[in-house]
Sequence to fold (460 residues):
Amino acid sequence: MKLKRIAALLLSAAVAVGALAGCGNSGGGSTQSSTTEDTSTDAEDTGSEAADAGSEDADAGEESTDAGEAVAEAGTVEFWNDKMANTEQTHLDAIFGEVKKVSGYTIDMVPYPDTASYQTAMQQTIRDEKAPGLFTWWSGPQLQTLVENGLVEDLTDVWNNYIFDEGVSQGVADAFTFDGKVYAAPWSVLYNVVFYNKTVFEQYGIEEPETFDDFLAVCETLKSNGVTPIALKSDSWAGFIWFQALLAAKDVELYKGVCDGSIKYTDPRIVEVMEIWKDMLDKDYFSLPIDWADVRAGFSNGEVAMMLEPHVEFTGMRNDYGMVEGEDIDSFVVPSMDGGKRTIFFEAAPLCVASASGQKEDALKVLETWYKPDVQNAFHAQSGYTNTSQVEVESVAVQKILDETADADNYQLVLRFYESTPDKLRDFVLDELMKFQLKNSTVEEMLNTIQAEADATFGN
Fold:
């Protein structure tokens, strides 16, 4: 794979790269250790809602597992991350209390207030036995760099013996797989789907589209009735959202090919898809890129009917605008152009075990129970994340998405563009896609410009 040549960089280069876009980073907070830390991200960034109160930490020697067996005190494992500096202690207690009950281990979490300080700390520590047993990172080339430098443990056996059985999908494992081995587990998984304003759809007699032609017809019906069909947000990183969705609707292998350099952006099939997108833009099926707050407000009042966002936005729209899942708001996945599987793009934050850490073996033991229902149900209750298909959710709309992620006959999970191509090229592509969405370049200009950069990146 051509990414191999790109990812074989020094670790210092890897840690200089920016954080995941779309998920957001934690804001201010302490870098001091906390003995019960939370796996949830900043609620303001993720749009997820923390529960009103967390459960108390329980004595691991007194508590029992799902099977009713007592779990003895097993020790402490450090967990470093840059995602939880602002998390309420009660929410941390609820999550890590369950980890302790099920595994016997106390999680000593060390949160960092920003990505830069976190990456620096990991760079200075990761090769030492004092490295944390568990830490979060970024998927794609950044994770691959750690793998190729021998800095993270092979978790293939943990996946095969424990994680798969708890309902974490193969598609998520694939995002963390290099040379047939899995090197991370999911800290958080976000599934990207098309949200639609159900009241608007019902007003104009619109059903969820079964085919791509149906999808285009939905857009035309909305536009003819004065409703903007689809919102585009103006965030500088967001230009890839519909680029990846339309490529995968045509053929997911086209998407994968441009990500790893095996297919040129100027390939006639890519041109065909971009011409479809241009036609949709010209017909005003999309808004011009607008501020995220305006996207959400316009969606809530029916000015805009659809937006393609992570599934936790159900929680955000409920909390901020009172939209009830399944009543005011629902979702579907973009249909395939040829009637094949629909593609659900996801973003996943890797949870890794540091190979040099003196806590390595204990950390591996923790991961054996990390995806047990009690732990993941507590995680979902505090963060809104749903990392396994077995999580208990009250929302029928969220359950529908989980069922789709588990339906391998009709849906496929694919890692999103932001983590799937070399960082420098990715940022260049994002700029060109934004120009295209603003109608400041043609299909030919955009793709030729991107391909010249891709040639330099992949050495074509």
